[in-house]
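Hi support team,

I'm opening this ticket because the web form for multi-chain structure prediction keeps timing out on my end. I have pasted the exact lines I submitted so you can reproduce it. The total is 424 residues across three entries, so I didn't expect it to be a heavy job. Is there a limit I'm missing, or should I split the entries? Thanks in advance, R.K.
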Amino acid sequence: MPLALVDCNNFYVSCERVFNPKLEGVPVVVLSNNDGCVVSRSNEVKALGLKMAEPWFKVEKLAKQHGIIALSSNYALYGDLSARVMSILSTFTTRQEIYSIDECFLDLDGFDPQSLIAYGQTIRKTIKRNIGIPVCIGIADTKTLAKLANYCAKKQLAGENSVCDFGQLNEMQMSELFSGITAAEVWGVGPRINQKLRAMGIKTIEDLRTATPDKIRNQFSVVLERTINELNGFPCIELEDAETPRQQIMVSRSFGSSVTALEDLIESVAYFATRAAENLRQDGSVAASVCVYIRTSPFKETNQQYQQSKVVPLIRPTDDTMKLVGAALQGLKAIYRSGFYYKKSGVLLLGLQAKETLQATLFDDPASLAKSARLMSTMDAINQKMGAGSLTLAASGIQHRWAMRRENKSPNYTTNWDELPIVK
DNA sequence: ATGCTCCTGCGAA
DNA sequence: CTAACGTTCGCAGGAGCAT
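Hello R.K., no limit was hit. The queue was backed up. Here is the completed structure from your submission:
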């Protein structure tokens, strides 16, 4: 029955600290793509009151006065460290669900209920020693409660040493604890639902937990009804330890500065479609249609606004980069209008299905399908061996004038030999 | 009345 | 110096349409 939720502390900042000890003990933030918003903060930064998701340009001056170090995000590094953390965590259980880049659930069914805290401490020490990343652990009988226990561990509201097991608390202690936390902290309660709950007088987790599920279902949805049941210890959300292939793949980026020329948009769309196609082949899927979109910046209110998207169906579902890029560019040309300052473009692959289960049709040309498959696996092999982007379509361009800002990125310490710092 | 697809809203990290 | 505000995914539920 019991589950653990393991969550890495300030994950991106912690990853940077593993390879740069000078960042230890000082205020550090990691910015989102395009150096746009604050997405990871060290404890020192949280103590200064800097908020999550704050646009960097708004706080940059103040942050620098406090000596805050701002790093561009380095997803190659975070992804690699995440895989290592997850791999070690998998050895502590028979069933693991990787929920996000820095979180996973572990099934602790069958363990001695009295020894779970000690087990949690062992897990923490192992991750810290083997990878260098600090984690918090919440343990309870449902996913929603495990998330909450994790929150309590992190905030030191219950449990100790970053591990909190709700199994150790009695009814009284639970309701006292829940009376002191706002409903907004519950997994599944976002800003909108929280606002509506408050208007109904439901302010704390205890208020939410003791609400009538039927009424909540009518006023909100079946999702929130399940949340209430989960808060009361009745599991409604299964552990999903089997990986399911994605249903859609999206690659989009804001540009470093705005773009007006069709040529630049073509480059970016070809580039994003190429990335999307690589992800698609990794999943072993094919796409039935491609959606392309472009937009101006909604924050530049004085500029003329324009946003448009177009879905281009494919004659036959495919994972061929050239066909996918071709469809994306066809869509782009249909929606492009001159005279706007474009700030973002993106490509979505839709109608995904497993490549093996794809039905053959009367009009298939087996020879050309085989040729496409060989070409794609050759491209992937070359890029695998020589580094990402070694072999690309000319349509993706070389200059990338639209490339995102990334002014302070750390080296790819674990995924690129050329970026290893040389110790002399 | 039922079932499908498409689209929007919401939440999550 | 100026301009500068993320990305990707899934689910629920309603609209619209066909049967």
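A quick check on our side: Residues 31-37, 39, 53-58, 60, 73, 221-223, 246-254, 256-257, 297-299, 346, 405 of chain A lie near DNA strand C (CB under 10 Å from a C1'). Let us know if the file doesn't open in your viewer.
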